[in-house]
Task: inverse folding
């Protein structure tokens, strides 16, 4: 996610870029599909059509519910690769901790600024001035967050940054919102706020436990205890509710470490395999290719089963398929065979754990998120990464994945691009009216959303290919 700190992957681990690209583009797609007219599985399970009123007691799981945890998982898996590389270059843990703090502040500022320049936040019924303001905000994000080449003199880099911040502060100072208020630290993008907390605490916890991954997973036991007992008062309640900076930090955000910390163990395994083999991974054994195709079926089966509330059949069939998949593994002959075997078992463990937890807390839910949701998401993300590694991280295996790779390497531009670039241009040029007119039905509306997401992928590719990255 973070260009300098969290995206320094070896060229042979493009599967992480693809996983992140899938997550960020699917996240954007879910926000632009027509509301109220498509089947329930096209929206968050707890915000069903046609009214989309939040129903916290409604269990279920849709593809929309998985995009955010998949993004978190990719973030967590990237930490050992990027931070481990810094350690290998001789940087001290204290220096790296300071860099994690700096990046955290950048992402926190990004979360706040972005929410202030979103068109529908500025005006629920955007007019021409609103779209122009949103587009201006998009442009001003570049001098703030773009990684500027060190070939440019330091004084010019400082001038660009300073001019960018002065311009953005001026814009935020004159904006007013429907409730009559102006700038507020509490007006922030909640997804980015959660990511901010996960980057900071996930990064520091990995740094402290980098040689003891078992200890890192053991810490989840204490998080689980706090998660289960914070409503009972005492020390657990105090820790859970302690929030010295409520505009950016709440302990409850750390519940997503149930996804991030297992992902860091996957990152440890990836780093270990890379360190033991210098050449490109050999072509995957045919059995791994066959097993990799089980995963999309697994994913669809789990979504259908959990959304339709076929809980026990889903668990039983998953258990049977898990036994078959483990039994189908080829002999362990290379570090990559060993890695694939670990990932398969690791993913199946978390998936089955989540399915066993499913009846707890009234069934699986994204909001308010349940333990089952964390574990099922972590398991499915691990298995999907395994499949992507088999498909992509082979010699010549990146063909056909370039749009997703580019989006995965530049996710923040992708995250912002629809609302603050593509939609403003379409509205200002009246292309939006034409597009809506030729896609009037629900499923044509979905195709319209796919088209806009495709344009976003192309826009992101444009910047990625020119080495223009936002370092948030």
Result:
């Amino acid at each position: 996610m973070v260009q300098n700190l969290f995206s320094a992957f070896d060229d042979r681990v493009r599967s992480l870029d693809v996983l992140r690209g899938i997550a960020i583009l699917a996240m954007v797609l879910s926000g632009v599909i027509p509301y109220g007219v498509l089947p329930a599985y096209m929206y968050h399970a707890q915000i069903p059509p046609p009214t989309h009123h939040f129903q916290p007691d409604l269990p279920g799981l849709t593809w929309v519910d998985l995009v955010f945890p998949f993004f978190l998982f990719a973030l967590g898996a990237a930490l050992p690769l990027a931070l481990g590389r810094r350690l290998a270059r001789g940087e001290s843990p204290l220096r790296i901790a300071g860099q994690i703090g700096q990046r955290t502040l950048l992402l926190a500022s990004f979360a706040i600024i972005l929410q202030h320049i979103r068109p529908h936040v500025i005006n629920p019924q955007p007019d021409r001035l609103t779209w122009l303001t949103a587009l201006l905000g998009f442009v001003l994000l570049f001098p703030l967050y773009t990684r500027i080449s060190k070939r440019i003199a330091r004084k010019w880099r400082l001038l660009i940054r300073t001019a960018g911040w002065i311009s953005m502060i001026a814009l935020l100072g004159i904006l007013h919102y429907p409730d009559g208020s102006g700038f507020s630290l509490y007006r922030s993008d909640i997804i980015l706020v959660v990511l901010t907390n996960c980057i900071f605490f996930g990064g520091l916890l990995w740094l402290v436990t980098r040689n003891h991954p078992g200890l890192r997973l053991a810490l989840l036991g204490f998080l689980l205890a706090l998660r289960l007992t914070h409503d009972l008062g005492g020390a657990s309640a105090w820790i859970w509710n302690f929030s010295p900076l409520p505009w950016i930090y709440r302990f409850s955000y750390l519940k997503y470490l149930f996804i991030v910390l297992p992902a860091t163990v996957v990152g440890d395994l990836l780093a270990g395999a890379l360190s033991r083999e210098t050449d490109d991974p050999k072509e995957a054994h045919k059995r791994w290719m066959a097993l990799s195709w089980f995963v999309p079926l697994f994913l669809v089966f789990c979504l259908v089963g959990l959304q339709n509330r076929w809980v026990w059949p889903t668990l039983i069939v998953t258990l049977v398929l898990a036994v078959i998949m483990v039994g189908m593994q080829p002999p362990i002959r290379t570090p990559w065979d060993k890695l694939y075997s670990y990932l398969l078992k690791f993913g199946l463990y978390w998936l089955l754990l989540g399915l066993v937890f499913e009846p707890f807390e009234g069934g699986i839910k994204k909001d308010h998120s349940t333990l089952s949701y964390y574990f099922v998401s972590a398991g499915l993300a691990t298995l999907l990464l395994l499949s992507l590694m088999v498909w992509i991280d082979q010699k010549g295996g990146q063909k056909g994945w370039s749009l997703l790779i580019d989006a995965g390497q530049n996710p923040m531009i992708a995250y912002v691009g629809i609302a603050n670039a593509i939609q403003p241009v379409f509205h200002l040029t009246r292309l939006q009216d034409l597009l809506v007119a030729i896609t009037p039905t629900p499923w044509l509306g979905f195709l319209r959303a796919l088209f806009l997401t495709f344009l976003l992928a192309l826009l992101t590719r444009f910047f990625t290919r020119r080495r223009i990255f936002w370092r948030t």
